[in-house]
Protein backbone atom coordinates (compact mmCIF):
# COMPACT_ATOMS: atom_id res chain seq x y z
CA UNK A 1 0.00 0.00 0.00
CA UNK A 2 2.84 2.42 0.78
CA UNK A 3 4.39 1.71 -2.62
CA UNK A 4 1.03 2.45 -4.24
CA UNK A 5 0.74 5.73 -2.34
CA UNK A 6 4.20 6.82 -3.45
CA UNK A 7 3.55 5.71 -7.03
CA UNK A 8 0.34 7.74 -7.17
CA UNK A 9 2.20 10.88 -6.08
CA UNK A 10 5.06 10.33 -8.53
CA UNK A 11 2.64 9.55 -11.36
CA UNK A 12 1.12 13.03 -11.00
CA UNK A 13 4.22 15.14 -10.25
CA UNK A 14 2.79 18.56 -11.07
CA UNK A 15 -0.25 18.09 -8.84
CA UNK A 16 1.93 16.77 -6.01
CA UNK A 17 4.37 19.68 -6.35
CA UNK A 18 1.60 22.28 -6.36
CA UNK A 19 -0.05 20.70 -3.31
CA UNK A 20 3.21 20.57 -1.37
CA UNK A 21 3.99 24.17 -2.40
CA UNK A 22 0.58 25.34 -1.12
CA UNK A 23 1.26 23.72 2.24
CA UNK A 24 4.73 25.30 2.29
CA UNK A 25 3.21 28.74 1.60
CA UNK A 26 0.73 28.14 4.42
CA UNK A 27 3.58 27.39 6.84
CA UNK A 28 5.65 30.37 5.63
CA UNK A 29 2.73 32.80 5.99
CA UNK A 30 2.02 31.80 9.57
CA UNK A 31 5.63 31.73 10.77
CA UNK A 32 6.65 34.89 8.89
CA UNK A 33 3.89 37.08 10.31
CA UNK A 34 4.59 35.80 13.82
CA UNK A 35 8.33 36.34 13.31
CA UNK A 36 7.86 39.94 12.20
CA UNK A 37 5.46 40.80 15.03
CA UNK A 38 7.47 39.06 17.73
CA UNK A 39 10.68 40.51 16.34
CA UNK A 40 9.37 44.05 16.64
CA UNK A 41 8.28 43.47 20.23
CA UNK A 42 11.44 41.72 21.38
CA UNK A 43 13.68 44.11 19.45
CA UNK A 44 12.10 47.05 21.22
CA UNK A 45 12.41 45.30 24.58
CA UNK A 46 16.11 44.58 24.06
CA UNK A 47 16.97 48.12 22.92
CA UNK A 48 14.85 49.78 25.61
CA UNK A 49 16.41 47.65 28.30
CA UNK A 50 19.83 48.72 27.04
CA UNK A 51 19.13 52.41 27.66
CA UNK A 52 20.15 51.99 31.29
CA UNK A 53 16.97 53.27 32.96
CA UNK A 54 15.34 51.60 35.95
CA UNK A 55 11.87 53.06 35.43
CA UNK A 56 9.61 54.64 32.81
CA UNK A 57 7.19 57.49 33.42
CA UNK A 58 4.49 57.68 30.75
CA UNK A 59 1.45 59.87 30.22
CA UNK A 60 -1.98 58.81 31.51
CA UNK A 61 -3.90 56.27 29.43
CA UNK A 62 -0.89 55.45 27.24
CA UNK A 63 -0.29 51.92 25.92
CA UNK A 64 2.75 49.80 26.75
CA UNK A 65 3.89 50.18 23.13
CA UNK A 66 6.25 53.11 22.97
CA UNK A 67 6.04 55.66 20.14
CA UNK A 68 2.32 55.25 19.41
CA UNK A 69 1.14 57.92 21.84
CA UNK A 70 2.93 60.86 20.24
CA UNK A 71 4.50 63.44 22.55
CA UNK A 72 1.70 64.66 24.85
CA UNK A 73 3.54 65.57 28.07
CA UNK A 74 5.55 68.73 28.85
CA UNK A 75 9.28 68.00 28.80
CA UNK A 76 9.75 70.47 31.66
CA UNK A 77 8.08 67.96 34.01
CA UNK A 78 11.43 66.19 34.01
CA UNK A 79 12.69 68.91 36.36
CA UNK A 80 10.02 68.10 38.94
CA UNK A 81 10.94 64.42 38.84
CA UNK A 82 14.66 65.20 38.95
CA UNK A 83 14.22 67.00 42.27
CA UNK A 84 12.75 63.96 44.02
CA UNK A 85 15.00 62.49 46.75
CA UNK A 86 15.75 59.08 45.26
CA UNK A 87 16.01 60.01 41.58
CA UNK A 88 19.51 60.02 40.09
CA UNK A 89 18.79 60.77 36.41
CA UNK A 90 15.73 61.77 34.37
CA UNK A 91 15.86 61.81 30.58
CA UNK A 92 12.92 63.20 28.58
CA UNK A 93 12.53 61.44 25.23
CA UNK A 94 10.33 61.80 22.17
CA UNK A 95 9.65 58.60 20.27
CA UNK A 96 8.25 58.87 16.76
CA UNK A 97 7.10 55.81 14.84
CA UNK A 98 7.65 55.96 11.09
CA UNK A 99 7.44 53.66 8.07
CA UNK A 100 9.73 55.77 5.89
CA UNK A 101 11.80 53.57 3.62
CA UNK A 102 9.33 50.69 3.96
CA UNK A 103 10.74 49.50 7.30
CA UNK A 104 9.03 50.27 10.62
CA UNK A 105 11.32 52.17 12.98
CA UNK A 106 11.21 54.44 16.01
CA UNK A 107 13.09 57.74 15.86
CA UNK A 108 14.36 58.90 19.24
CA UNK A 109 14.50 62.56 20.18
CA UNK A 110 16.88 62.86 23.13
CA UNK A 111 18.53 65.33 25.44
CA UNK A 112 22.06 64.00 24.99
CA UNK A 113 23.41 64.95 28.41
CA UNK A 114 20.67 63.30 30.47
CA UNK A 115 20.20 60.35 28.09
CA UNK A 116 23.92 59.63 28.10
CA UNK A 117 23.91 59.79 31.92
CA UNK A 118 21.57 56.77 32.05
CA UNK A 119 24.23 54.63 30.41
CA UNK A 120 27.03 56.25 28.41
CA UNK A 121 27.15 55.81 24.65
CA UNK A 122 30.04 53.88 23.17
CA UNK A 123 31.04 55.79 20.06
CA UNK A 124 32.43 53.78 17.16
CA UNK A 125 33.04 56.94 15.14
CA UNK A 126 32.25 60.64 15.30
CA UNK A 127 30.87 62.55 18.23
CA UNK A 128 27.73 63.99 19.76
CA UNK A 129 25.40 66.57 18.20
CA UNK A 130 27.15 69.59 16.75
CA UNK A 131 24.08 71.21 15.20
CA UNK A 132 20.29 71.05 15.31
CA UNK A 133 20.05 68.69 12.34
CA UNK A 134 22.66 66.16 13.37
CA UNK A 135 21.77 62.51 13.98
CA UNK A 136 23.49 59.76 15.94
CA UNK A 137 23.00 56.30 14.41
CA UNK A 138 23.92 52.87 15.71
CA UNK A 139 26.39 50.52 14.05
CA UNK A 140 23.65 48.21 12.74
CA UNK A 141 22.00 51.02 10.78
CA UNK A 142 25.42 52.20 9.61
CA UNK A 143 25.89 48.85 7.87
CA UNK A 144 22.59 48.98 5.93
CA UNK A 145 22.40 49.49 2.17
CA UNK A 146 25.88 50.42 0.96
CA UNK A 147 26.95 51.60 4.40
CA UNK A 148 26.83 54.96 6.15
CA UNK A 149 29.68 57.02 7.53
CA UNK A 150 30.06 60.12 9.68
CA UNK A 151 29.27 63.12 7.51
CA UNK A 152 26.72 61.32 5.31
CA UNK A 153 23.27 62.82 4.91
CA UNK A 154 20.10 60.82 5.54
CA UNK A 155 16.43 61.83 5.60
CA UNK A 156 14.35 61.70 8.75
CA UNK A 157 10.71 62.81 8.58
CA UNK A 158 11.46 64.24 5.11
CA UNK A 159 14.24 66.46 6.45
CA UNK A 160 17.97 65.98 5.74
CA UNK A 161 20.17 65.13 8.74
CA UNK A 162 23.95 64.82 8.93
CA UNK A 163 25.36 61.74 10.65
CA UNK A 164 27.55 63.16 13.40
CA UNK A 165 28.27 59.93 15.28
CA UNK A 166 27.98 56.15 15.12
CA UNK A 167 27.46 54.25 18.38
CA UNK A 168 27.19 50.63 19.44
CA UNK A 169 23.66 49.28 19.04
CA UNK A 170 21.32 48.36 21.87
CA UNK A 171 20.69 51.78 23.42
CA UNK A 172 17.20 52.68 22.34
CA UNK A 173 16.69 53.88 18.80
CA UNK A 174 18.80 53.25 15.76
CA UNK A 175 18.51 56.94 14.89
CA UNK A 176 18.68 59.61 17.61
CA UNK A 177 18.26 63.33 17.08
CA UNK A 178 17.95 66.30 19.40
CA UNK A 179 14.66 66.31 21.30
CA UNK A 180 13.90 69.93 20.42
CA UNK A 181 14.53 69.27 16.72
CA UNK A 182 12.25 66.24 16.62
CA UNK A 183 9.61 68.12 18.60
CA UNK A 184 9.73 70.92 16.03
CA UNK A 185 9.38 68.51 13.10
CA UNK A 186 6.43 66.80 14.80
CA UNK A 187 4.75 70.03 15.90
CA UNK A 188 5.32 69.08 19.55
CA UNK A 189 7.79 71.72 20.73
CA UNK A 190 8.64 71.43 24.41
CA UNK A 191 6.94 68.03 24.66
CA UNK A 192 8.05 64.48 25.41
CA UNK A 193 6.66 60.98 24.90
CA UNK A 194 7.98 59.63 28.21
CA UNK A 195 10.70 59.99 30.81
CA UNK A 196 13.40 57.43 31.49
CA UNK A 197 14.36 57.42 35.17
CA UNK A 198 17.41 56.02 36.92
CA UNK A 199 17.11 55.55 40.67
CA UNK A 200 19.87 56.05 43.21
CA UNK A 201 19.19 52.48 44.33
CA UNK A 202 16.90 49.83 42.87
CA UNK A 203 15.43 49.21 46.31
CA UNK A 204 13.98 52.75 46.22
CA UNK A 205 11.90 52.26 43.08
CA UNK A 206 8.61 51.95 44.96
CA UNK A 207 9.42 55.13 46.89
CA UNK A 208 10.06 56.94 43.60
CA UNK A 209 6.69 55.78 42.29
CA UNK A 210 4.97 57.13 45.39
CA UNK A 211 6.88 60.40 45.22
CA UNK A 212 5.96 60.94 41.57
CA UNK A 213 2.28 60.25 42.25
CA UNK A 214 2.43 62.69 45.16
CA UNK A 215 3.82 65.46 42.94
CA UNK A 216 1.18 67.99 41.78
CA UNK A 217 0.39 67.49 38.10
CA UNK A 218 1.91 64.02 37.95
CA UNK A 219 -0.67 62.08 39.96
CA UNK A 220 -2.18 60.36 36.91
CA UNK A 221 1.11 59.51 35.18
CA UNK A 222 1.92 55.84 34.66
CA UNK A 223 5.06 54.82 36.52
CA UNK A 224 6.53 51.37 35.90
CA UNK A 225 9.79 49.65 36.59
CA UNK A 226 11.63 48.31 33.56
CA UNK A 227 10.73 44.78 34.66
CA UNK A 228 7.03 45.69 34.83
CA UNK A 229 7.12 47.33 31.41
CA UNK A 230 8.82 44.34 29.81
CA UNK A 231 6.24 42.00 31.33
CA UNK A 232 3.53 44.05 29.58
CA UNK A 233 5.22 43.72 26.18
CA UNK A 234 3.68 40.37 25.30
CA UNK A 235 1.37 39.41 22.41
CA UNK A 236 -1.57 38.86 24.78
CA UNK A 237 -1.35 42.41 26.12
CA UNK A 238 -0.83 44.24 22.83
CA UNK A 239 -4.09 45.30 21.14
CA UNK A 240 -4.68 43.66 17.78
CA UNK A 241 -1.63 41.38 17.89
CA UNK A 242 -3.43 38.07 18.35
CA UNK A 243 -6.27 39.16 16.06
CA UNK A 244 -3.83 39.85 13.22
CA UNK A 245 -2.12 36.50 13.76
CA UNK A 246 -5.48 34.69 13.87
CA UNK A 247 -6.62 36.31 10.61
CA UNK A 248 -3.40 35.34 8.81
CA UNK A 249 -3.56 31.83 10.26
CA UNK A 250 -7.16 31.34 9.10
CA UNK A 251 -6.37 32.62 5.58
CA UNK A 252 -3.27 30.44 5.31
CA UNK A 253 -5.17 27.38 6.58
CA UNK A 254 -7.98 27.95 4.07
CA UNK A 255 -5.45 28.16 1.23
CA UNK A 256 -3.88 24.85 2.24
CA UNK A 257 -7.26 23.22 2.87
CA UNK A 258 -8.72 24.21 -0.50
CA UNK A 259 -5.66 23.18 -2.50
CA UNK A 260 -5.51 19.75 -0.85
CA UNK A 261 -9.27 19.32 -1.17
CA UNK A 262 -9.21 20.14 -4.89
CA UNK A 263 -6.11 18.05 -5.51
CA UNK A 264 -7.46 14.93 -3.81
CA UNK A 265 -10.99 15.40 -5.19
CA UNK A 266 -9.77 15.48 -8.79
CA UNK A 267 -7.35 12.62 -8.06
CA UNK A 268 -10.25 10.46 -6.84
CA UNK A 269 -12.25 11.22 -10.01
CA UNK A 270 -9.30 10.25 -12.19
CA UNK A 271 -8.68 7.03 -10.25
CA UNK A 272 -12.22 5.69 -10.18
CA UNK A 273 -11.30 2.47 -12.02
CA UNK A 274 -8.23 1.99 -9.81
CA UNK A 275 -10.38 2.28 -6.70
CA UNK A 276 -12.88 -0.19 -8.22
CA UNK A 277 -10.09 -2.72 -8.82
CA UNK A 278 -8.86 -2.34 -5.24
CA UNK A 279 -12.35 -2.81 -3.81
CA UNK A 280 -13.04 -5.80 -6.08
CA UNK A 281 -9.84 -7.35 -4.69
CA UNK A 282 -11.20 -7.02 -1.17
CA UNK A 283 -9.93 -3.60 -0.08
CA UNK A 284 -12.14 -2.27 2.70
CA UNK A 285 -13.46 1.25 3.07
CA UNK A 286 -10.88 1.81 5.80
CA UNK A 287 -8.09 0.78 3.43
CA UNK A 288 -9.26 3.22 0.74
CA UNK A 289 -9.58 6.06 3.23
CA UNK A 290 -6.17 5.22 4.65
CA UNK A 291 -4.61 5.30 1.17
CA UNK A 292 -5.96 8.76 0.39
CA UNK A 293 -5.01 10.14 3.79
CA UNK A 294 -1.51 8.69 3.52
CA UNK A 295 -0.99 10.49 0.23
CA UNK A 296 -2.16 13.75 1.78
CA UNK A 297 -0.04 13.35 4.91
CA UNK A 298 3.05 12.56 2.80
CA UNK A 299 2.46 15.76 0.82
CA UNK A 300 2.02 17.58 4.13
CA UNK A 301 5.40 16.29 5.36
CA UNK A 302 7.08 17.51 2.19
CA UNK A 303 5.23 20.84 2.29
CA UNK A 304 6.02 21.51 5.96
CA UNK A 305 9.70 20.65 5.47
CA UNK A 306 9.83 22.92 2.42
CA UNK A 307 8.07 25.70 4.32
CA UNK A 308 10.50 25.53 7.24
CA UNK A 309 13.46 25.57 4.84
CA UNK A 310 11.97 28.58 3.04
CA UNK A 311 11.38 30.53 6.25
CA UNK A 312 15.02 30.12 7.25
CA UNK A 313 16.07 31.20 3.76
CA UNK A 314 13.87 34.28 4.12
CA UNK A 315 15.40 34.92 7.53
CA UNK A 316 18.89 34.84 6.05
CA UNK A 317 17.91 37.15 3.22
CA UNK A 318 16.24 39.68 5.52
CA UNK A 319 19.20 39.69 7.89
CA UNK A 320 21.50 40.51 4.98
CA UNK A 321 19.19 42.99 3.25
CA UNK A 322 17.48 44.60 6.25
CA UNK A 323 19.72 44.16 9.32
CA UNK A 324 17.61 46.65 11.31
CA UNK A 325 14.55 44.38 11.03
CA UNK A 326 14.12 41.83 13.79
CA UNK A 327 12.76 38.60 12.30
CA UNK A 328 12.33 36.19 15.19
CA UNK A 329 11.68 32.56 14.31
CA UNK A 330 10.60 30.59 17.36
CA UNK A 331 10.23 26.84 17.88
CA UNK A 332 6.74 27.43 19.26
CA UNK A 333 5.50 28.96 16.01
CA UNK A 334 7.25 26.36 13.85
CA UNK A 335 5.43 23.63 15.78
CA UNK A 336 2.14 25.53 15.72
CA UNK A 337 2.34 26.20 11.97
CA UNK A 338 3.25 22.56 11.29
CA UNK A 339 0.30 21.25 13.33
CA UNK A 340 -2.09 23.65 11.59
CA UNK A 341 -0.77 22.56 8.18
CA UNK A 342 -1.21 18.87 9.02
CA UNK A 343 -4.72 19.39 10.36
CA UNK A 344 -5.71 21.46 7.32
CA UNK A 345 -4.35 18.73 5.06
CA UNK A 346 -6.23 15.96 6.87
CA UNK A 347 -9.52 17.85 6.84
CA UNK A 348 -8.99 18.83 3.20
CA UNK A 349 -8.52 15.18 2.22
CA UNK A 350 -11.28 13.79 4.46
CA UNK A 351 -14.22 14.26 2.07
CA UNK A 352 -12.41 12.96 -1.03
CA UNK A 353 -11.27 9.97 1.02
CA UNK A 354 -14.82 9.17 2.16
CA UNK A 355 -16.09 9.70 -1.38
CA UNK A 356 -13.56 7.17 -2.64
CA UNK A 357 -14.50 4.68 0.08
CA UNK A 358 -18.21 4.88 -0.83
CA UNK A 359 -17.71 4.09 -4.50
CA UNK A 360 -19.46 0.95 -5.70
CA UNK A 361 -16.89 -1.46 -7.19
CA UNK A 362 -19.21 -2.48 -10.09
CA UNK A 363 -19.86 1.17 -11.05
CA UNK A 364 -16.18 1.99 -10.63
CA UNK A 365 -15.04 -0.84 -12.90
CA UNK A 366 -17.51 0.20 -15.63
CA UNK A 367 -16.38 3.85 -15.39
CA UNK A 368 -14.88 5.28 -18.59
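Sequence proposed for the structure above (368 residues):
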Amino acid sequence: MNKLVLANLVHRPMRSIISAAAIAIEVVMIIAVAAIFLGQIDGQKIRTNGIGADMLVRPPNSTPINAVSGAPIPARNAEAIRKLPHVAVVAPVIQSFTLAGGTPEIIYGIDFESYNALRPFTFVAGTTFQGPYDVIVDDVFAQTDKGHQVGDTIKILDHPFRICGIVENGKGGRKMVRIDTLGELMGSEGKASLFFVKSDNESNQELIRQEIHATPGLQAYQVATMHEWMSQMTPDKIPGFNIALDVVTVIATLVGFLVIFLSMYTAILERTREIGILKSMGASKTTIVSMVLRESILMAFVGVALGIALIYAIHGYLNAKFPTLFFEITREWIIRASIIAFLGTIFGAAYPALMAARKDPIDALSYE
